[in-house]
Known about the structure:
mainly alpha, DNA binding, DNA-binding
Amino acid sequence: MASEKKPFVLRISPEVLKELEKWSAEEFRSLNGQIEYILSDALKKRKKSKKSEE
């Protein structure tokens, strides 16, 4: 079963966008894929840190 993705608008400074574009190119990802990867990684780290606090 394919996961459904919901589109949304992201307001971001031109400087941050430029850096994200460079980063995504270095890792052979689309800009959207890079942003999704960064957010997923941050969520995983957050879950791990909450478990260690318990």
